[in-house]
């Protein structure tokens, strides 16, 4: 490989064929290996081979590989991308920015500043982190290296780096905890160009002027109408994106945490700071006097970080009484509060950070006058990064309640299985299953259950956390837990829960699919002593069998009372951390693989 065109040439036909054969066999073996086999590859061999494979893939993608090479190799560039991805999963995780530095760069030196934000603003109201623009002047700031690495000579440079140098990042299912399943599905498409709608959008908000509309409305217009077919952003389409930008369209790029090692480090640091499985990062480049996204609200909290230029934001009051869940369909918005004289309006300057909770409608536009911009080349333009704290369902307070119930049930099995009858064990299993459903029904109408559970949040290093006030947030989390236990004990009704399950089963509804993530929690004992969270029909058949004897309702109320009174908070925290580690492991394997492809 290092000899380039000499390999596979007429002068060394035998040697060239051997090298090509080694590459072909290596790609086949690696792409058909399990994670266990990949972990057996010696570290020194990985360190020597991976850079060579990345260089080869780079040349194949750039069509700079000699023609005689192509005749010798029998794998595609996508096969080679899959090989690089698989080998990179074993590489060291992307460097995490020190938690103290991230917290200080955003919230200031004192831990109390972060705790005040969490207790007063987090998931409650928008907040402009004043003074954060000064981070650009700090030599040791977390974000300064990223800002300087994005210091282009023109907006064309930014667009070129987005459109020509990046590859697609296929979505990873939220409850996928086995990277092999993802690889088996995506084996032949890794390394493809950006896919419109999935990785990148080119859009602008256009005002609707129809007389039938009574309210001020803007609608998003996409430059590409992809319909049912995939649109790849390369070649001619990349040039069309540049032309669209000149005509007022915003270029929005998703998944920056998988494309930039610097963004990945920041995202991973925030993930640890907030105790969540992952943090997403999107990049938005907007031309002067334009608006990309129409007024909308998100199902996740965001920190908007203004990198270059300025952008004016309008944030309305939250239209809902409960926080929107991740992945749930978003309801239509009421008329803008800003028309009624309400809401918040502000302008972000370079380095400013704005926090917007999930559920708060917002929109933003650039001004035609960019005279205050630090970089004159960005006069009127805006480049900002959104860091999204996506609270997965298992990591809301509802999820923590499910984890707590699971821990309590498993602990009870250890103490009683040897002395109880088979029928009594089945009754207890059904009662616990129904109590899981009861928690869900209570969470549907109680806002506190949808808030993020922060028991895994790490506020800083061990030295800093020795300060007396550092446990304020953790104590508030424990108090929230016991409040939730009181709500569950007071509100859960057997007949309501039973009828809910009955309606779902009769209508062949998939409304219990929210429960599938519970299968990731460990269960001891034989199969008949376990709750089948994946097969609801099996659980329903057992419920029908035991409902007639009249004892199931009594068992349900006994189970609920014992759980809410005897559950051990610390046990639930331990299991919660174990589940969080499972989620993080798969996401970090994915992140390592995608960053390796982009580093090539």
Query: Which class of the largest domain in CATH terms?
Result: Mainly Beta
What is the topology, as strand order, of the major beta sheet?
A: 1-11-8-13-7-6-3-4
Rounded to the nearest angstrom, the distance between the terminal CA atoms is 16 Å
CATH superfamily of the largest domain: Cupin
- Report the C-alpha radius of gyration, rounded: 27 Å
Give the strand content.
Answer: 5-15%
Number of domains: 3
CATH architecture of the largest domain: Sandwich
Low-confidence stretches: 337-341, 370-378, 463-469
- Overall geometry comes to globular
Detailed description of the structure:
By secondary structure, the chain is α+β, with helices and mostly antiparallel strands. The chain folds into 3 domains: 4-88, no CATH class; 99-169 and 180-391 and 583-599, Jelly Rolls, CATH 2.60.120; 395-567, no CATH class. It has helices at residues 13-31, 35-38, 43-61, 67-72, 77-88, 99-107, 111-120, 144-149, 155-163, 179-186, 236-246, 261-274, 397-416, 422-445, 472-491, 494-506, 536-547, 552-566, 569-599, and strands at 127-129, 194-195, 200-207, 218-222, 232-233, 250-253, 279-286, 301-309, 311-315, 344-348, 353-356, 362-365, 382-389. The strands form 3 sheets. It has an 8-stranded antiparallel beta sheet. A 3-stranded antiparallel beta sheet has the order 10-9-12, with no helix packed on it. Strands 2-5 form a two-stranded antiparallel ribbon. The radius of gyration is 27 Å and the shape is globular. Mean pLDDT is 83; it is low at 337-341, 370-378 and 463-469.
């Amino acid at each position: 490989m290092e000899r380039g065109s000499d390999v596979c040439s007429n002068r060394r036909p035998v040697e060239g064929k051997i090298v090509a054969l080694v590459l072909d066999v290596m790609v086949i073996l690696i792409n058909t290996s399990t994670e266990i086999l990949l972990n057996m590859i010696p570290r020194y061999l990985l360190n020597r081979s991976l850079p060579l494979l990345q260089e080869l893939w780079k040349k194949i993608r750039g069509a700079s590989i000699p023609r005689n090479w192509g005749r010798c190799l029998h794998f595609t560039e996508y096969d080679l991308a899959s090989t690089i991805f698989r080998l990179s999963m074993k590489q060291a995780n992307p460097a995490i920015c020190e938690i103290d530095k991230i917290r200080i760069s955003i919230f200031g030196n004192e831990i109390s500043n972060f705790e005040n934000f969490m207790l007063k603003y987090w998931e409650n109201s928008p907040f402009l982190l004043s003074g954060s623009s000064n981070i650009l002047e700090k030599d040791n700031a977390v974000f300064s290296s990223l800002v300087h690495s994005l210091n282009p000579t023109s907006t064309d440079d930014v667009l070129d780096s987005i459109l020509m140098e990046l590859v697609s990042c296929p979505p990873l299912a939220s409850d996928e905890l086995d990277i092999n399943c993802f690889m088996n599905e995506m084996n032949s498409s890794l390394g493809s160009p950006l896919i419109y709608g999935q990785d990148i959008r080119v859009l602008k908000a256009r005002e609707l002027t129809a007389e039938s509309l009574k309210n001020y409305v803007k609608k998003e217009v996409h430059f590409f109408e992809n319909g049912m077919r995939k649109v790849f952003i390369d070649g001619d389409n990349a040039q069309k994106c540049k032309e669209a930008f000149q005509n007022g369209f915003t270029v929005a790029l998703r998944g920056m945490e998988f494309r930039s090692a610097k963004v990945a480090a920041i995202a991973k640091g925030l993930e640890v700071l907030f105790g969540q499985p992952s943090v997403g990062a999107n990049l938005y480049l907007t031309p002067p006097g334009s608006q990309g996204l129409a007024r909308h609200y998100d199902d996740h909290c965001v920190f908007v970080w203004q990198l270059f230029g300025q952008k004016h934001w309008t944030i309305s009051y939250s239209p809902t009484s409960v926080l929107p869940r991740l992945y749930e369909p978003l309801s239509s918005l009421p008329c803008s509060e800003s028309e009624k004289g309400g809401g918040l309006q502000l302008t972000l300057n370079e380095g400013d950070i704005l926090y917007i909770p999930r559920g708060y409608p917002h929109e933003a536009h650039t001004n035609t006058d960019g005279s205050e911009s630090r970089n004159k080349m960005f006069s009127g333009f805006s480049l900002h990064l959104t860091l999204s704290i996506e609270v997965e369902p298992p990591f809301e307070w509802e999820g923590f309640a499910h984890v707590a119930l699971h821990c309590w049930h498993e602990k009870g099995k250890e103490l009683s299985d040897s002395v109880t009858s088979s029928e009594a064990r089945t009754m207890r299993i059904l009662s616990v299953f129904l109590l899981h459903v009861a928690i869900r029904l209570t969470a549907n109408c109680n806002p506190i259950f949808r808030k993020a559970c922060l028991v895994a949040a790490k506020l800083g290093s061990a030295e800093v956390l020795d300060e007396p006030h550092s446990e304020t947030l953790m104590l508030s989390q424990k108090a929230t837990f016991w409040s939730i236990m009181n709500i569950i004990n007071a509100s859960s009704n057997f007949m309501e829960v039973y009828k809910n399950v009955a309606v779902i089963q009769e209508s062949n509804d998939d409304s219990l699919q929210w429960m599938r993530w519970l299968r990731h929690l460990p269960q001891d004992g034989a199969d008949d002593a376990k709750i089948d969270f994946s097969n609801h029909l099996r659980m329903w058949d057992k419920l029908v069998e035991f409902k007639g004897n009249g004892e199931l309702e009594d068992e349900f109320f006994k189970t609920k009372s014992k759980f809410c009174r005897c559950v051990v908070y610390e046990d639930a925290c331990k299991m919660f951390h174990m589940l969080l580690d499972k989620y993080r492991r798969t996401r970090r394997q994915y992140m390592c693989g995608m960053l390796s492809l982009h580093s090539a």
